[in-house]
Amino acid sequence: MKNLKCPARGNGDSNQTHRTLSARFNSCAVLGIFLLLLLSACGGTSYAEGERLYKTHCANCHMDDGVGLSALIPPLAGSDFLAAERERLPCILRHGLKDTIQVNGRQFAEEMPGVPTLSAVHVTNILNFINHNWGNQQPPYRLDEVERLLEQCE
Ligand code: HEC
Q1: Would residue 89 count as lying in a domain?
Q2: Residue 2 falls within a domain, yes or no?
């Protein structure tokens, strides 16, 4: 830790006491932690978590590449449902869906089970993983948006 150097602030305090040194070290540590948080917030770990959760809870039916399964399971890759029903998706992930829906002009009517144990963070990460994969380019969900939508599930 002795070698850790932070850029000088240029405030002209040339007589560095132990106190200013440790203050500098602290501000370095805080900066480091902040950068680490920023990095994970930018998607690194949350995207990886979304992928992991997708593989655990969704890929069995929707397949690893999101293509679905013939007339039984609708595709997520290139699905027009993602944009059309954006506000419903968090509740569908948590509580499932038993409906007759149209995806890319095709009709689907099998039942999807929900995963009630998914937290709002999990739901956000899974949806953002789907939204940025397989050619999908939907705007990302924010956590507070997903929390609000989950509160309104019927
Ligand atoms: C047991 C199979 C199964 C599992 C597991 C499953 N789904 Fe589904 N999913 C379906 C079926 C069937 C439908 C269509 C439901 C209907 O017609 O009411 C569907 C519909 C959807 C839709 C809306 C239609 C579309 O294709 O855009 C989304 C989004 C979706 N699922 C995402 C997920 C996600 C994310 C997971 C994991 C958390 C998941 N599903 C897990 C079978 C499944």
Answers
A1: yes
A2: no
Residue 121 CA, ligand 1 centroid: distance in Å: 19
Q: Residue 63: inside a domain, yes or no? A: yes
Q: Which atom of ligand 1 is nearest to the CA of 110?
A: 12
Domain count, the chain: 1
For 73-132, how does the pLDDT look when each residue is reduced to its tens digit (9 = 90+)? 999 999 999 999 999 999 999 999 999 999 999 999 999 999 999 999 999 999 999 999
Ranges assigned E (strand) in 44-151 = 96-98, 101-103, 106-108, 111-113
Task: Using alpha carbons only, give the angle 108, 111, 115 rounded to the nearest 5 degrees.
Answer: 125
Whether 109 is covered by a domain: the verdict is: yes
pTM to 2 decimal places: 0.78
Check pocket membership of 108 for ligand 1, CB cut-off 6 A: yes
- Segments forming the whole domain that contains residue 111: 44-151
Residue 111's domain is classified under what CATH number?
1.10.760.10
No. of helices (H) and no. of strands (E), the chain? 7, 4
* CA 62 to ligand 1 centroid distance, Å: 7
Distance from the alpha carbon of residue 42 to the mean position of ligand 1, in angstroms: 27
Q: Tokens 């150097």 map to which residue?
A: 5
